[in-house]
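We were asked to recover a plausible sequence for a given structure. The inputs and outputs are reproduced exactly as logged, with field labels preserved.

PROBLEM: sequence recovery
POSITIONS: 117
GIVEN STRUCTURE:
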């Protein structure tokens, strides 16, 4: 299984948070184009990324800084676990899990069609 080191995430945005929240919509039609390493880096960092290197605090809130949630990425290449400390992806399976995920999510075909879930 492989490990992928991600590029550093951007720490400043191009639009205010409020504007991003107001414009947020669920998209269910995707191109076949894979996300770039920088895009993956940014999205994964936003889910659980380290924001306080000295104390291990993350971008996601957690009572007592216990961080019980884990982030996984599903692609045609398999399933990957996000390691916030190393800012890396570690492959846990070479099988594409998106069909099983689709079946578990009320048959939303967009899950199978998306380049990354």
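RECOVERED SEQUENCE:
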């Amino acid at each position: 299984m492989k490990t992928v080191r991600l590029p550093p995430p951007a720490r400043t945005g191009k639009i205010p948070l409020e504007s991003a929240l107001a414009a947020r919509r669920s998209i269910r039609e995707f191109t076949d184009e894979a996300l770039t390493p920088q895009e993956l880096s940014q999205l994964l960092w936003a889910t659980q990324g380290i924001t306080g290197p000295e104390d291990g605090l993350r971008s996601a809130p957690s009572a007592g800084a216990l961080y019980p949630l884990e982030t996984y990425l599903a692609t045609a290449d398999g399933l990957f676990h996000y390691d916030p400390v190393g800012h890396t992806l570690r492959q846990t399976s070479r099988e594409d899990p998106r069909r099983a995920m689709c079946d578990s999510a009320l048959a939303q075909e967009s899950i199978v069609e998306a380049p990354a879930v």
